Amino acid sequence: MRFLSARRRHPAAKVLMLLFALVVVGGIYSVVSPADQVAADTGKSQQIAEGKALFAVGCASCHGLQGEGQVSGTIQGPPLIGVGAAAVDFQVGTGRMPMAQPGQQAPRKKNLYTDEEIAALAAYVASLGPGPDIPAEEDYNPEGLSDEDLARGGELFRTNCSACHNFAGSGGALPNGKYAPTLEGVSNRHLYEAMQTGPQQMPVFPDRALTPEEKRQIIGYLNHLNSQPNAGGFTLGGLGPVSEGFWAWVVGLGVLIAFTVWITAKGARAK
Ligand code: HEC
Ligand code: HEC
């Protein structure tokens, strides 16, 4: 049995192996993980630099090179320090910015930037000062809301939004030639961001006014509203049951009169 004992390892071998493994793992970790961190940081600062360059070309003429704003002269824009990434994502994503010309209102129009460019612009503006972040998908996706949640969303909508946007969300006029636009066809993300940032005449609804869950309920309600087929077959701009009832009355009566005339004519012929 000399053969076997010769192959027996030194008692310290196991400990050495373990130490070696620890050193290797630790080494790999120390090489890989800070590198990842550095890569993430450079990715972020690169995105901010890209955003800054885009901003200088497309936005600075009104908002100033550092987003400090321009509040005198013919071309004006408010300061953007602290408006947050959500405001940029909303304003640029809905084509409101860059504003074509100074005017009464910044209307929704064709968006000029790619998603990456919008993300870069948003990152740059967010780097100027803390503000609301772009919401995550689970914040605004109304999937899984119960009927009760949707009813609550309807209630919240009627209390907080319908004064300007109308009960059917189809928009309405405001003083001084301004208006609140229709909410039909607005993406869930932009719905959420509008509440977060309050564009123009619209109030901001911070989380203490409407919790994230309540915002999601409103979004669910609006999705539900927009997916409803038109019950009566008449599009009356959602003017309400009164005018729809009126039309039912007029049309129904019209049919009745036509039928009476037809019967009378038949009766006259039969005589
Ligand atoms: C022609 C001038 C002009 C240009 C160019 C312009 N803006 Fe604006 N921007 C404005 C004005 C004016 C407002 C304020 C609108 C209002 O409230 O009536 C505004 C508002 C905003 C807001 C909303 C601020 C808030 O308080 O929520 C953001 C965000 C914004 N702009 C981002 C941008 C970005 C990003 C660009 C470039 C892609 C840009 N703007 C280009 C004039 C401009
Ligand atoms: C005081 C009036 C007012 C109230 C209250 C109000 N809004 Fe608005 N809303 C506006 C105006 C004005 C605009 C247009 C701003 C612009 O064009 O930049 C707007 C724009 C929007 C938009 C952008 C639509 C688009 O076409 O991109 C959304 C979404 C929106 N509102 C949702 C809401 C919701 C949800 C509520 C309730 C929680 C609400 N608003 C409450 C006045 C109001």
Summarize the SSE layout with pairings.
Elements: H1 2-7, H2 13-58, H3 60-63, H4 84-93, H5 115-128, H6 137-140, H7 147-160, H8 162-165, E1 172-173, E2 179-180, H9 188-197, H10 212-226, H11 241-270
Helix pairs in contact: 2-5, 4-5, 4-9, 7-10, 9-10
The chain binds heme C (2 copies).
One heme C (HEC) binds at residues 94, 96, 105-108, 160-161, 163-165, 174, 178, 180-181, 183, 186, 190-191, 194-195, 199-203, 205, 218.
InterPro entries: bc1_cytC-su (IPR009152), Cyt_c-like_dom (IPR009056), Cyt_c-like_dom_sf (IPR036909), Cytochrome_c_Oxidase_Subunit (IPR050597)
Subunit structure: The cytochrome bc1 complex is composed of a cytochrome b (QcrB), the Rieske iron-sulfur protein (QcrA) and a diheme cytochrome c (QcrC) subunit.
Domain Cytochrome c: 46-129, 148-226
